[in-house]
Amino acid sequence: MNNGMNRRHFLQLLVASGLAAGLPMSLRARAAEGNFTPYSGPFFVSIEAGGGWDVTSFCDPKVNPAINHWASTQGVQTISGSSVTYAPFAHNQRFFSNLHPHMLVVNGIDAQTNAHQAGQRYNWSGRLAEGYPSFAALAAAVYGAGLPLAYLSNGGYNQTAGVINYTLMQDPGALNKLVYQDQFLDGGSGWDAAKYFHRQSTRDIINRHRAERLARLQAAQPHMASRMQAALNQFAAAKDGQQLLELLAQYVPQTLVDYTDADGYWNPLLRQAQIALAAYQSGLCVSTDLVAWGFDTHANHDADHAAALMRLQNGVEYLWAEAERLGIDDKLVVMISSDFARTPGYNDGNGKDHWPISSTIFMSKNASWANRSVGLTTAAHEAQAINPQTLAADSNGILLQPKHIQQAMRELAGIAGHELSQRFPLNAESVNLFGQL
């Protein structure tokens, strides 16, 4: 099927041609009525730089050689016509030069902790304590209730607080097992699309009897105990989800991108991005978390952190290039952040330890709020107070915290006033990150 074909029309064609006979009753009805609506809104992508990134060698550069060794010979780099600056480190020049038109850099965010788990919670949920869902979970619950892949996780902070379930996709090969459950492994060589447990005619009989049995059970539902009714509804929803997942097979490339990136690094972020974009294209996915590791550089900081940053940059650049190739780059709303940052200086092992003052990068194609940097830190990398509306330095203003960032993200996504968001209040002042200054 042409990827550009309207997926609602695709389901209607299935019904008209008789090919939808294997679909569960509820999905067949939705297809026939034309009221199955794949998700096509913004695709919310959270990218976690796991371990605590060094923003003073990234998007909030500091030129004191005691803070960064590169400062002994080089200075802060600037983007012409933009307030975005960067350090002469890793692939920063290429990364910021190419992507700054889509980028809002927010510096001076006080994570209020040096502990990894607390930093993850605060940056991705807006609350230091446990119990709040990630932004990705909230967005998926608001916009994707009922979709089988509404929230696709790769192992980042994926707490849901019960508002939705996530699908853990650390092994993209598992998609074949989800979509083609009737196929079998052939001599350990992988899934062979030409070989099945049953002949097609046998599968048709099995599917017909399953559908008939489900219909009989649903007809008897009013006479069942409430617990049995709930179990039957869950089973029916799961069957719907299985058939919906077959739509995904149209978008997952037959050949997945290699795990090795252009620098020769093992880089799972590439395949995470590829699968996430395919899930969004299918209309089944609202949000995803992608994860890049290796930033907790307590020793050998310069070399190891440069490698971690390059893996991250290669992954983000691939995400944008692949989205552009697929014609959906205008749908991306990306948030890149980390647990916290690294100390403004080196330890005895030539590493850097944990430091709470960090940054977050938002990205959306040529957004009105992009191509700039906001938030303030001192030369010693300490946070400065800003006016929440003008974002200028203001001694009577606020110190940015992750709760402000998450509140702004909820507002950007249009879910701040939703009852699900109201169940998890952030008690944060509204900060004009995405408005007009």
Automatic annotation (TrEMBL):
InterPro entries: DUF1501, TAT_signal. Residues 1-31 form the signal peptide. It holds the Pfam family DUF1501. Keywords: Signal. This is DUF1501 domain-containing protein.
